[in-house]
Amino acid sequence: MQPSVQGNAAAAALRDGYADPADQLEPTLQNVLDQTSLKWIFVGGKGGVGKTTCSCSLATQLAGVRDSVLIISTDPAHNLSDAFRQKFSKAPSLVNGFTNLYAMEVDPTPDLSEVEGLGLEEQGGFLADISTSIPGIDEAMSFAEVMKQVQSFDYSCIFPTTLEKGLNKLMSLKDSFGGMVSQVSRMLGPTAPGGDDMVDQLLGKVDQLKCVVEEVNAQFKNDELTTFVCVCIPEFLSLYETERLIQELAKFEIDSRNIVINQVIFPEEAGSSRLLAARVRMQQKYLDQFYDLYEDFHIVKLPLLEEEVRGPEAIRAFSQHLMRPYQPPAAAQQAADGGSAGGSNSLLEELRRQVEAQQQKIAELEAQLKAAGK
């Protein structure tokens, strides 16, 4: 059904320059799926913008065109488990409802005695104990755990957050361990069990792991193999953080050509709500800035939803918006489904329910105060 003239006029009045430029690149992530050479796909951005939802959604789309996909999280909050409603661990597990999508959650603060990449389990508890005092060791070990999984290169990898901190820490790990272990060995004296052999064995393990990291790092700088999808929301701080992130990616020579702007309120969904209309105008200002700054990027806009996207089916449904531009319900269709556009708008109805609930609470409190005064 075609939208009404009145609905179009209201939307245009709110937009006022909101429309995408005619020469804008395709506003989807289809380019990521089409580039079959990609091995690494990073998804990152400021906290609270929907990185996990976007990365899970992109992973489900990739699973439809790739043989095997692995999505990795180093977030201690275990957001992947929450998103898919399934418990994951540091070992890749098949996601329910899929035959080729795997997920894993790497503990950012692992037990160092269990980290195979450095062989600390072979040295006993001594090195694990002293290594905990090395600044940045947790980030390095988290990255080391990821490296263990990718040495076989059997997956297309998706990272909800960037791991450059772990990479940098791991590259400097040899000097940190070498200096500390040598110092401790000297303190214990030449007759200490293990002695220099212990130091040499440990540094040999670090060198082996460093070679893997250097190989993977070279792939990160190859735009045929790696790209980074930036996720943000249409607000000032998020715009600022996105620009800083893109500058950092350029410094690291990592390809970035896609921006996902999440939690967008579309003009057609504002209805007659002055609050939502004001929010649309505020968002529009920053959306315009995104389009001005990143005219050579694919910019995808995702809607603000009433509920969290959780569970495989909900993620599958939401992922469609990454591949096809989101089309808000037409005002005429809303009216046909139950009254005026403003009255049937789900976001507006939710706000009204919240106001009514607060008014009821106020009335109850006033009644209690009145009774107490008697």
From TrEMBL:
Residues at the active site: D75
Q: Name one GO molecular function term.
A: ATP hydrolysis activity
Q: What is this protein called?
A: ArsA/GET3 Anion-transporting ATPase-like domain-containing protein
Q: Where is this region: Disordered?
A: 329-350
Organism expressing this protein natively:
Chlorella variabilis
Which locations, inside or outside the cell, does it occupy? Cytoplasm; Endoplasmic reticulum
What is the organism lineage in this UniProt record? Eukaryota, Viridiplantae, Chlorophyta, core chlorophytes, Trebouxiophyceae
Subunit details for this protein?
Homodimer.
Per the database entry, which stretches of residues form a coiled coil? Answer: none
Annotated Gene Ontology cellular components are: GET complex
